[in-house]
Amino acid sequence: MEELEDIRLFFIFQGIYICRMGKIIMPVLIFYKVVGKNAASSKMSDEKTCFGMENIMSKVSINVKDNIAFLNSHIGIKNSYDIVSREITIGGRNACMYLIDGFCKDEMMQKFLQFLMELKAEDMPKDISGMTQQFMPYVEVDVQSDFDQVIYFILAGTFALFIEGFDQCFLIDARTYPSRSVEEPEKDKALRGSKDGFVETIVCNTALIRRRIRSTELCMELLNVGESSKTDIVICYMQGRADEKLLETVKKKIQDIRIDALSMNQETLAECLYKKPWFNPYPKFKYTERPDTAAAHILEGNIVILVDNSPSAMIIPTSLFDLLEEADDFYFPPITGTYLRLTRILITMITYLLTPTFLLLMMRPEWIPETFAFIQLKDPVNLPILWQFLLLELAIDGLRLAAVNTPNMLSTPLSVLAALVLGEFAVNSGWFAGEIMLYMAFVAIANYTQSNYELGYAIKFQRILTLILTAVFGGWGYLTGVIICFSCLIFNKTLGGKGYLYPLLPFDWKQLKKRMIRHRKSSDF
Prior knowledge:
- Helices cover about 50% and strands about 10% of the residues.
- With about 525 residues, it is α+β, with helices and mostly antiparallel strands.
- It has a 5-stranded antiparallel β-sheet with strand order 1-2-4-5-3, covered by helices on one side. The protein has a 5-stranded antiparallel β-sheet with strand order 6-7-9-10-8, with helices on both faces.
- It is elongated, with a radius of gyration of 33 Å.
């Protein structure tokens, strides 16, 4: 090292001297660069040697002891009780296994190890392919030489086996994840149809979709996101039906995500995929916990994204009409399905317009037709109407949050108590008018005619904004609030770049008729 430094300094001074003499300096600079590079490489090599084997070892070694030393120093086996390792002998050779306690099937692994430990030295093959083909009596077996991949699979629950003399690790996928049973989801219930739902295990969720679409065109691509979590993500689509440009865009965006972990599962992924302005409240994705709904969207050419540890599927692209569709629309005859769909659309519009329209009419009684004169308030109002509406909006959300956290055994008595206190006593005490309580009760209940929580809150925010504008500016404020609401819908874009109100804007009568009217399924493919 000192000789190289001396040579480098020598040529530096020689270069300076030649430059002063007006001679050619390029050869000297080239030689200096080469010498300097060699010196730097030698220095880095010495540093790696000083730091030890673990900083330069990236491939599986034929020496089991080296592999054990490397893994024990990298996966924190001394600090994690659930990472299990055991050294055994297979065919007269040293071997070692690694697994995560609780992820492997105990009975299967016991039989598997019993078979391997009974092998004799003369039975052992010379190469790893022979070992895999002859002495690995299991279906899902893979080999891997890269330690990064080996560590990833171990932490994902795969059984890893190192055998002396083989420069690759055997990965036996005998995982069994703790999960609940498949049952009907609480949110996406249907009067008819299947009663199964997604769970938190991604393998089970893909099986539920594959059970419904037995086609070679169904593709399920596996990716992972998160430097620490390494969360599995599956992109499901029908080859030849999905938008290829959108599919490539989604893949690239997922692969380009640089994040420590998907702490909030699909919501974190959604925020990483769609980075447009946050102030537009309307949802960009549709979520469903029903495998039949996910399979139907895949067959229609949409893309479904499954995230491990999440019991719902993310559907893209999503428009407003997609959010207003439900499984019951298709499980009933066409006329009933059409009625349910149109009713849902109409009630969703009423939940937005009801309270601002009532406030405007109370401010302008002369605008009330004679046939609707009965809607006027009969009793004197102690609190301004705007504040009554805003307090009830807040109270409804408070009751909703309380219902989520209330134990089941107390839900019935607390519901009766809340109904008496907030219903009868709130009116008798003069805080709220009976008519306002009636309208807000309708809005609170009607909000559940569609199952998308994000859409419900988007309508709620737009309703509150329109209420405030109406109270401040009267009729012009009401009109401004409606314009802002529809502007958020018009200028909102799906992940594929299409309009949020398509096929209404841009107008497509053929597609709009399909969205509004439930047609009978034809036998022609």
